[in-house]
Write a structure and sequence with these properties.
heterodimer; A: mainly alpha; Cytochrome Bc1 Complex, Chain D, domain 2; two-stranded antiparallel ribbon; two-stranded antiparallel sheet; 4 strands
Chain lengths: 137, 195
């Protein structure tokens, strides 16, 4: 009993000190979700993820929009919200805090997919997107 | 002679400082008394709005914009704002129900019709009681106060829109909107809010 608590603590300390592990964990969680919802799922696709990030579309309100509108075309750069507030870089290589908290990840996917695509994203899309962001060096 | 000089000097300084400290006491006292009927006790009467904060509000709302003060709008505006987060000025800002309720509670309890403040009262006075405004910048008070600012100034990269109070009112999040501290940025030196 005590041993498991100690192990859990050690795990938490490692996670806190090494967020890179935490975003790999989240990608694995998405993988498990994808597998359970789609029997044909094999793996996430980095280039499909980049396509999601870079595809521009016309919003029903008339403006051209994409992820790059706020995050800039370079995931390693700081972006800007429409209310002029700085958005920290989205690529974990420069901002290791990214994709480390499942609640945060889901909250922002829900908001931003609705903003850009006017619908929610699928598990496959979310996984592709994270895989691409983690591949940015 | 010299033993008389010091007490006189000290007395003179005390009278002077009392005068400057309590110079415009009337107004401050008025708001302090009124706040006793409200829910908030932490009122900074030096400024235009009550400076109140809530950790959930800070965490959720300020990732996209500055921390507007609850005293800027009446309760009905905040309730509507929080009920329409799926289209929050054109963006999706949906929250978990529990978090949403906590933030709504914080905003409404400290709203301009619950906790009266200098500037909050002035804004409220120009809002039609039958209307539920969401944009502070759409109120007559705001428009009157900014009538010398041309739309092109708002479009500057360093400002963006009238929603970015902090661009020109550096003390906005501390409730300080005094005209003396206004600094309209030129585009060369952007004053964008940092996290």
């Amino acid at each position: 009993m005590k041993m498991t608590i100690i192990l859990k603590l050690v795990f938490l300390i490692i996670m806190a000190k090494n967020p890179a592990l935490a975003n790999e964990t989240i990608l694995k969680d998405f993988e498990a979700l994808a597998k359970s919802s789609d029997a044909k799922f094999i793996k996430f696709n980095i280039s499909a993820g980049e396509k999601i990030f870079r595809t521009e579309r016309i919003h029903s309100k008339g403006d051209k929009i994409s992820c790059m509108t706020c995050h800039t075309p370079d995931p390693k750069k700081t972006g800007l919200t429409r209310a002029n507030k700085v958005i920290e870089p989205i690529a974990p290589v420069v901002n290791p805090e990214r994709f480390t908290d499942m609640i945060k990840v889901n909250k922002w996917f829900k908001r931003n997919c609705n903003d850009v695509l006017e619908r929610e994203c699928t598990i496959q899309e979310k996984g592709d997107f994270i895989a691409y962001m983690m591949s940015v060096k | 002679m010299s033993y008389l000089k010091w007490p006189v000097l000290i007395l003179a300084i005390s009278i002077l400082s009392i005068n400057t400290l309590w110079g415009d006491d009337d107004e401050e006292e008025q708001y302090e008394n009124r706040s006793k009927n409200g829910t908030v006790t932490k009122l900074n009467t030096r400024y235009d709005f009550a400076v109140v904060t809530n950790s959930q509000f800070k965490a959720e709302c300020t990732s996209c914009h500055m921390a507007y003060l609850p005293g800027m709008l009446p309760a009905r505006s905040w309730t509507k704002m929080m009920d329409t987060l799926n289209d929050h000025f054109g963006e999706n800002a949906e929250l978990d129900v529990k978090v949403k309720n906590e933030i709504t509670d914080f905003l409404t309890k400290n709203s301009s019709d619950k906790v009266h403040t200098k500037r909050g009262d002035k804004i409220l006075a120009t809002i039609n009681p039958k209307e539920t405004v969401l944009r502070i910048s759409s109120t007559e008070y705001f428009k009157r106060k900014h009538d010398e600012i041309s739309p092109n100034i708002y479009k500057r990269k360093s400002i963006g829109s009238p929603a970015n109070c902090l661009a020109c009112h550096g003390g906005a999040e501390r409730g300080d909107f005094s005209e003396d501290s206004v600094l309209i940025p030129k585009d060369k030196t952007p004053t964008i809010m940092k996290k």
